[in-house]
Write a structure and sequence with these properties.
disordered N terminus; two-stranded antiparallel sheet; 7 helices; mainly alpha; 4% strand; 2 strands; single chain; 72% helix
């Protein structure tokens, strides 16, 4: 497994380490950063569903798995991924709130309160807007790819990362009495995925029989 080029390595490390410095130096809230990562995954999930629905390549996703395109929109497959991924992400948000959101009472009473609290109140919207536009540009390329397999794999790897962080982060919070363990684990796993994503993707596609779809 080879390391990425130096310029990519620096960008990846900075993008993942800066949030930790924000907590240490600027007094950012750990839970707010975890919510930001969660909202970032929501943006990626949205564009993943759009990619499946409007994919123009030879291979799409159906209830029976990957299949050759027969024409028209893959709305059923896109809807299934939206519900399936959304179910796990909703559970993740609830567990994050229980484990780390003690200082934010009532923020999950409604979607409006949640968005007002973090998007506007914590000024997360500018960063998320940039991410949304960036992923929109990627969508224009991904919808022309031969297969949607890499896009789906990318989304579910993020979900797996959050699942691992919640499980082991809860263990760390109970032992250490702090959410730092979970945050550091999240940043470390994100950085590892960013650094070695081509190799991780190749492994996932190979294990699912989709190596030829890269």
């Amino acid at each position: 497994m080879t390391m990425p080029r130096a310029n990519n390595l620096v960008l990846i490390l900075l993008s993942n380490v800066l949030p930790l410095l924000g907590v240490l130096v600027a007094g950012w809230d750990i839970y707010t950063l975890l919510v930001f990562y969660w909202l970032e995954s929501c943006v990626i999930a949205f564009w993943t569903v759009m990619t499946i629905a409007f994919h123009k390549g030879e291979e799409t996703w159906t209830f029976d798995g990957y299949a050759r395109r027969t024409g028209g929109l893959a709305s059923a497959g896109a809807g299934f991924i939206a519900v399936h991924a959304g179910f796990f992400m909703a559970i993740h948000l609830f567990l994050m709130s229980v484990l780390y959101g003690g200082d934010w009472p009532g923020h999950l009473k409604s979607p409006q309160i949640f968005l007002e609290t973090f998007l506007m109140g914590q000024n997360l919207w500018p960063m998320l807007a940039l991410i949304f536009l960036h992923r929109a540009a990627i969508f224009l390329e991904d919808r022309k790819a031969v297969s949607v397999a890499p896009v789906i794999a990318s989304l579910y790897m993020r979900i797996v990362v959050m699942q691992v962080v919640i499980i082991f982060g809860a263990w760390g919070a109970m032992l250490l009495g702090s959410g730092w363990f979970g945050l550091i684990l999240l940043v470390a796993m994100r950085a590892a995925l960013d650094l070695y994503w081509p190799a991780v993707l190749a492994y996932v596609l190979d294990k699912t029989g989709k190596a030829a779809a890269r």
